[in-house]
Amino acid sequence: MKKVNWSILIGAAFLMASSAIGPGFLTQTAVFTQELGASFGFVILLSVVLDAIAQLNIWRIIAVADQPAQNIANKVFPGLGYLLSFLVFLGGMAFNIGNVAGAGLGLNVLLGVSVGQGAVMSAIIAIGIFIYREAGKVMDTFAKCMGLLKICLALYIAYSSSPPLAEAVVRSVNPSKFSFGAVLTIVGGTVGGYITFAGAHRLLDARQTGIDNLPAINKGALSAIGLASVMRILLFIAALGVISAGNKLDPANPAASVFQLASGQLGYKIFGLVMWSAGISSVVGSAYTSVSFTKSFHPVILKLNREIIIGFIVIACIIFLLIGKPVNILIAVGAINGLILPLALGVMLIGAYRHNIVANYKQPLWLTILGITVVGVMTWMSYGAIIQLIGL
Q: pTM here?
């Protein structure tokens, strides 16, 4: 039995949570709180359940199979792993453009540099992590520090906004408004695309896998969802307090409005720090995980893994500098990642019943049934979102 390394397990949980809590996460939470009010609490509650089911299934299956998601997908159906990798890589790159932009905006607020200069500075810091010989350990420590920083700062802003907690609790179980698009976006922004695989592939690289370690892996998977959900709830409560007081959020930067209206100029500076830590930690998580979907395809890719990760970050930064701040993409990419989730989770569930993938492992039936339910719900919501998007 391989003894689980709790430091790596916690680092993997924080890596997944930090990947989820990016600039888009902040923007989505503010926008949907303004749209749905206290009823957004129900969307968060529903998304936490869907997130946990998806995460538990994916982490467990990858740990038992002891191979990355793309290899599992190729064994389920030849070529499917390449399609999954392409979708995740593309979604990760789109997400990273927003992440670099968010990190640049954070330094713009904190230091007064231009958003472009802030993006370049943040990209250099992220690249520095992967240049270091013990990049995995540095990435784990960095993810933990950034995760704790974001939660502590969000807690202060939530307290400062004097939110109507009683109403939030009531509407979280008895909503007066509902949005399928919000659920799709929030779930996609938490476990969609590359995000849910961030921690699982980190455990794979650190050799923290196997059936014997499943109890610890369960705790890691649920801890990651818990960390992201705590941050989502704190931001929701903060935004609800600001909106309930009759304030209107700036559509150009709704997340910044929440912090500034809750705590004045200090709140605005805190937003800068939260936005920067959210942006740069997501740059690291997105680059690492997106590239992890390609390195098993050829020995050269594996050998140049570090250089490809650095190139991934550089390209995202260059695209941002050429295009400018992608305001709406932060919402759109969450939905795109939500579209990828049914395929990714569906493939993992099929893989859980292939002996050439998991040997004699028996996936709990209840977990499979819940997983299939999530696939069905997310497919249905994805179809509805696409129909709404094209106006049919």
A: 0.85
Distance, in Å, from the CA atom of 331 to the CA atom of 188, rounded to the nearest integer, reads: 10
Alpha-carbon span 128 to 309, nearest angstrom? 11
Residue burial 27-61, b: 16+ Cβ < 10 Å; e: rest: bbbbbbbbebbbbbbbbbebbbebbbbbbbbbbbb
CA distance 339 to 349: 17
The type of residue at 117 is Q
Q: pLDDT tens digits, residue range 158-215?
A: 888 888 989 999 999 998 988 877 887 788 777 777 787 888 888 888 778 888 888 8
- The single-letter DSSP state of residue 174 is S
Three-class DSSP category at 42: helix
What structural domains and CATH numbers belong to the chain?
6-390 (1.20.1740.10)
* Sign of the dihedral defined by the CA atoms of residues 56, 293, 127, 279, in that order: negative
Give the long-range contacts of residues 6-10, CB within 8 A, separation 24 or more: 6/216, 7/140, 8/136, 8/140, 8/202, 8/203, 8/206, 8/208, 9/203, 9/208, 9/216, 9/217, 9/219, 9/220, 10/140, 10/144, 10/220, 10/223
Joined tokens for residue 247: 């304030």
Q: Tokens in use for 122?
A: 């943040």
